[in-house]
Amino acid sequence: MFLISERINGMFTAVKKAIAARDAAAIGEIALRQLAAGADALDLNVGTAAAEPAEAMVWLVESVRAVSAATLCLDHPNIEVIRAGAEAAGDNFIINSTTAREEDLAKFLPLAAQTGAGLIALTLDEKGVPNTVDGRVEIAARILIAAEGAGLPPDRLFIDPVTLPINVAQDQPKKLLEAVSQFKLLSDPPPRAVIGLSNLASGSSEKSLLTGAFLAMAMGAGLDAVILDPEDRLLIDLLITGEVLLNRTIYNRDYLKAWRAGKT
Ligand code: THG
């Protein structure tokens, strides 16, 4: 499972303050903590309040690059903000994200193809996010075809079926699981599947049970990557255990410890 850290996000007060004060050390500290906890990549999101999002994104990239060469996941809907972040990152980054709207695909696919980046694409088009499994799979198929046309191979493409909070959309989790398993049948090699796990429990009680149970189910459905907080120990223990049950990590009495040791 490819683990993307969600904590460097301007929605969190500490990060918002660090961005406003240009406190690079504070960002570097969070980055190193998230990587030590097992993150494979760091999502960088300046938050909706950033006055100059492109500048803030460049600053976030530089702040993290000062302490680590880890994969960065540049999280912004605007291509100019992504371009600025991409230039600062140099290489080893993922673009998060494009929608399946024609005008977005026309901008984001060539950028990903040319820079060697990965690209997360949401199953969201001119009509919004479909409420059905078929609707999401149909959009994923369109994204794949457009990616092929732009020269972006499926293994650099992450399809995100868009996770909505359970307290407003209880019919969605089951549909997400079905969508994830069907994405895998669209091409050979298949695209990768990714979700923003915390979205599920936003505004709910029992966050950790909701996200933990869903993570286990999504792993069974074939999820490849997940955006979450790797410092959430229960969640990571579940994730590691899922890797063992799927026979991707060797079982032994100390498999949790062994996985963590392999990350450092
Ligand atoms: N898909 C993709 N990218 C994404 C998302 C996605 N990027 C942003 C987001 N979703 C993933 N990141 C977060 C980060 C934090 C939280 C949720 C998603 C979160 N929210 C809490 C809440 O809403 O209740 C608490 C916030 C707070 O403490 O203020 O934790 O789906 N491709």
Number of helices: 10
General shape: globular
What top-tier CATH class of the largest domain fits best?
A: Alpha Beta
The first-to-last residue Cα distance is 16 Å
Largest sheet composition: 8 strands, parallel, barrel
Describe this structure in words.
Helix 5 packs across helix 6 and helix 6 packs parallel to helix 7. This protein is α/β, with parallel strands linked by helices. An 8-stranded parallel beta barrel has the order 1-2-3-4-5-6-7-8, surrounded by 5 helices. It has 2 domains: 229 residues, TIM Barrel (Alpha-Beta Barrel), CATH 3.20.20.20; 33 residues. The longest helix has 18 residues. The mean pLDDT is 97. The chain is globular. Bound molecules: (6S)-5,6,7,8-tetrahydrofolate. (6S)-5,6,7,8-tetrahydrofolate (THG) binds next to strand 4.
List its salient traits.
8 strands, globular, 2 domains, binds (6S)-5,6,7,8-tetrahydrofolate, TIM Barrel, alpha/beta, eight-stranded parallel beta barrel, 264 residues
